[in-house]
Task: structure prediction
Amino acid sequence: MPTEDEILLLPARQFKVKSCLDSGNELYIIQLKEICPPHPLLEPVPTPPKIST
Result:
C-alpha cells in the first residue's frame, strides 16, 4: 500500500530554496529552508493561561 508523507504549511511562511533535483518523469525534489521574514505578517496566537482546579 503506497503512502505519502505530507506536511501542512501555514500561510505567510517564507522559504529559501536550498536545492532542486530533477528526478525525471516530471518529478522534482526541492529542499527548502524556512526563513524569518523581515516583517512578520502573522502574530503568534496567545495561549490562555492554564486554570488549576
Observations:
- The mean pLDDT is 83.
- The first strand starts at residue 14 and ends at 24.
- Residues 12-37 form one domain.
- Strands lie at 14-24, 27-35.
